[in-house]
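ENTRY TYPE: paired fold submission
RECORD: A
CONTENT: sequence, then structure tokens
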Amino acid sequence: MKKDEPPFTFPKTLEEFEYAFNEYGQLRHIKTGELFVFNAREDLHRWNQKRYEALGEIITQYVYELLEKKCNMTKAILPVDATEDEPTSFIYLSPDAMSNPSKLLVLIQGSGVVRAGQWARRLIINQDLDSGTQIPFITRAMEEGYGVMVLNPNENYLEVEKPAMSSPLPSATEPSDEPAEKRERKDDKEGKKKREFYEKYRNPQKETETEQIPIRENGSSEEHVLYVWDHFVSKAAAKNIFIMAHSYGGLSFVELMNQREMQVKNRVCAVALTDSAHNIWLQETSKSTQDWMQQHCCNWVSSPEPLDTPLDPMLPDCPQVSAGTERHELTSWVSFNTIFRFFSEVLEAKEDEESLPPLPLPPWS
């Protein structure tokens, strides 16, 4: 029996979803106390996915609120010289992010749907706020006297609805690099998928067509990190800058080094990476950058080994140690304490070195 696909209209708040975060930061159903259920309706995968995404959007706003209310952070709009009618993004700054004379921590997340303040949406929904958000890192950093900047590398464009108009049919003469045979197979496959879908539902919902307007100079994670370095990090007062980057954030950091090598070397004390996606060969990183990374970076990677067990790096860049978990998205949370210890030890060593009296000049100078 064919059924109608329900409309893609979902609650706009956690309360309307009938979910709330309990005292342990876990998302639970208000009435049953149960965990979030993805398959709310059997046999309606697309609808369930849309519902999950709608909840994800609410959680993004919830985390922004926590950054503002719990962490006392404020938004800085990007680009800094944005006009009134262009799309913008933002980062979050602690009150002393630009003025703290001593220490600044810069947090860079991985790629995907996550926005400022999140490591992994799946962890926030299925586990808790501590493991899935950057809030424990921000709170601990503030307690230890750091200024904090929270980057937003996935907010790259404004999505707007396309005006309704009949879409022109693709021209038959349009050239294609694919062999005809392969194209036909692909068309068959697509056609079969569509047929199955239409056979399943009597009235499938039509998805809104959208177009993306890129945010100037912030159209990708790499562009965003470079932009924030140029307009914020490099202008901050802190004598000691620390960076923590997860997954694709590590690749964006290495790209920053490729673009601003001397500046980064002069300002950054240490870099903690968690399951970083960087690749010094594919990114054509200079030998001098690789040497610097060897001295100043550490990558906590997913591994069955106990936390902090040294591992053989595949490439000659930075030391790798186990994050104490085999789950990619958990690497930041599980290595939380050890990352702060790493930063403290690097800073202590630097300060010890700076406090040493200068070496006496040899008598023949």
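RECORD: B
CONTENT: sequence, then structure tokens
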Amino acid sequence: MASAWKKDKNQKLLSPKTLISLLVLSIIFLSSLFFFFSNSSLQYSNPNLSINSPYPIPPFDCFKCPQSKPIIANVVENLKYPFVYSLADLGNLPEKPHKNIVRLLKGKPFRKPDISATIQEVLDSMRASGKNGIVVDVGANVGMASFAAAVMGFKVLAFEPVFENLQRICDGIWFNRVASLVTVFEAAASDRTGDITFHKLVGRLDNSAVSEVGARLAFKSNKEIAVQVKSIPLDKLIPPSQPVLLIKIDVQGWEYHVLKGAKKLLSRKPAEAPYIIYEEDERLLTASNSSSKEIRDFLKSVGYSKCSQHGTDAHCTKE
């Protein structure tokens, strides 16, 4: 008995790095179990998926979508209207987890995405002036802009062609209880109807770009997977009678084609024309055979005379 005690006493303790890794894996495992058993009795329904859908393409059905796993979700910090979203990029587990996973382990919320705060500020101002309408989120990723608007009570049309992101959006629709507000399309908004080739990056399947070069520039990768996705112009999907408050576009260099496909929508008179937020990264635009000048010239042609730069985003309005 004495020798056994001596042996136990000399055993080495686990290093802090190993303990953190085990904790991360435990959280992932427990989260997956929780969601599996929760979904076993979940009667999820989306009122936007009715048989008489007004849209030319069917909305994405989260109920029929395979559940994403593992699930690591948390509330976002420092927002007037907080929401929860699910991570798609987990980092390199267990050695180098995503920064938000580290924050979660420290008991902190996820870091506030800049676009979420911007969306809420713009919509708050519009609502205060008596305006109403829907929000269009093109390149929705995991829903950080869509949920920022939906938790404020605004209806959202979200476009996202990457399946791994669609799974996370479905997570967020459930977590935030916004199934009646968010309609998702597994499609790329563009200037033509049909199919378009997207390039998903190996190791970052949650992100993509139409341009193969643009995909590598945006996410620093040398390998990608080409996939075919549906494309549709916004003018084909949004009727003239539908008020639109805001269009957010983040499509890794394909912004010009999205805007061209919304020419009728953008040609509305100033009081009805949507506020536009789009990413204006010259490297990505060049990779897609476009430019910031081409975009600004097009916007001027439909009456958007006021554009201002906010980091890598441009904000444009009509006066």
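NOTES ON RECORD B: The radius of gyration is 22 Å. The CA atoms of residues 277 and 315 lie 5 Å apart.
STATUS: closed
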